[in-house]
Design goal:
By secondary structure, the chain is mostly helical. The chain has one domain: 2-Layer Sandwich (Pantoate--beta-alanine Ligase, Chain: A,domain 2), CATH 3.30.1300. Helices cover about 50% and strands about 10% of the residues. The longest helix is centred in the first third of the chain and has 51 residues. The structure holds zinc ion.
Length: about 120
């Protein structure tokens, strides 16, 4: 009689295994989508940097009445200096051969026009 009243404290092995299996399942679902979201946000941040560089190039051409500009002149118009690509890409700025419009390029992510084509 006294033996039945006594309750065991703690969890059984099966209960702990079920909890571990649920945590593993959630991690298996969550980690890939988290990594994908991280990569996507890096691309979006890079595209925003390219927009700022192109905007800086246009401002340099207009304000200084120039016909040509450089990357270093364009980034002078960006608060905080030269932006950095989150994936370690290097930025370049070149005039389009047909339109003459300045297009910024990231050697990792491409140009704004190619956004999406380099995302996997
Ligand atoms: Zn980039």
């Amino acid at each position: 009689m006294k033996k039945e009243m006594k309750k065991k404290a703690g969890f059984t092995l099966v209960e702990i295994m079920i909890v571990v299996a649920i945590i593993g399942l959630l991690a298996a679902i969550g980690i890939p989508s988290f990594q994908k979201a991280r990569a996507n946000s890096r691309v979006k941040a890079c595209m925003n940097n390219l927009r700022m560089i192109e905007s800086g190039a246009e401002q340099d051409l207009m304000l200084n009445n120039k016909s040509a500009t450089t990357l270093s002149a364009a980034v002078d118009f960006i608060k905080g200096g030269t932006p950095e690509c989150g994936a370690g890409g290097t930025y370049s700025l070149a005039a389009d051969a047909t339109t003459g419009e300045y297009i910024a390029n990231c050697d990792t992510h491409g140009t704004i026009a190619s956004e999406g084509s380099t995302v996997n």
